[in-house]
Amino acid sequence: MPLLLPVAAGLALGAVMGLLGGGGGVLAVPILLALGLSLDAAATTSLVVVGVGAAAGLATHARGGRVDWVIGLMFGALGSAGAIAGSRLAFAVDDRVQLAGFVVLLALAAYGMLRGRSESSPEDDDKPLPDPNWAVVVLLASGVGLVTGFFGVGGGFIAVPALVLALRMPMRRASATALVVILVNVTVAFLAHGTEHVDGGLTAVVAVGTAVGAVLGAVLQPRIPSAALQRTFGVLLLVVAAYQTAQLVLA
């Protein structure tokens, strides 16, 4: 396989993560499938790639002061049990059932992001959040962890809408904070999945590209209006949902 393809895939995945704080996982699985991996291998490999991208983007966002560490770590920690349960469940469920559930979640998340409107400014990123409903936080965090383990994704495509729509977090701050959630969840999910299905060489190449792309995306993010970021996130989810639907129908 030409080296350019996995490098380009990694750069694209990382740029999406750095800009939007999510979406890398939902893109990683179909891209890795297109690179020739099986569904189990793509799901496990995506955890490594997304984790590396999340760490690289997070470092850049943290220097810009856009990360809410308390919410991010709490969301990630509460989701850990769900990530383990989801990983175990993934190997017991038919692939078509997994893909169908994936499409439904993508569509729901896209609807929430496109229906809502973020009009926050960069100054809003420094404002304190209203006191969250902790019961809602627990349920959302557990659900994000379950999705991470079950579908082999970082959970950002669910975490970002949850932080924006349920906790009223500004889009830039939510996308940066979601990388904390992703990093915790993919680490736990990877430990549950194990290394049996990982292609070391391909994973390393894609991961390096993802790290570079994530840093570039995080650097560019403050220059883009938050409403545009939110709409882009919603459209991205719809595109991936359409692609996965086509895969499901044609399989």
Automatic annotation (TrEMBL):
Q: Can you tell me where the transmembrane regions are?
A: 69-90, 97-114, 134-167, 174-194, 200-220, 232-250
Instruction: Name the UniProt key words of this record, in alphabetical order.
Output: Cell membrane, Membrane, Transmembrane, Transmembrane helix
| Coiled coil feature spans | none
Where is the protein found, in the record's own terms? Cell membrane; Membrane
**Entry-linked InterPro entries:** TM_pro_TauE-like (IPR002781), TSUP/Inactive_protease-like (IPR051598)
Q: What is its main location?
A: membrane
Membrane topology listed for this record: Multi-pass membrane protein
| Family assignment from sequence similarity | Belongs to the 4-toluene sulfonate uptake permease (TSUP) (TC 2.A.102) family.
Record's protein name: Probable membrane transporter protein
To which species is this protein native? Longivirga aurantiaca
**Top-down, what is the taxonomic lineage of the species of origin?**
Bacteria, Bacillati, Actinomycetota, Actinomycetes, Sporichthyales
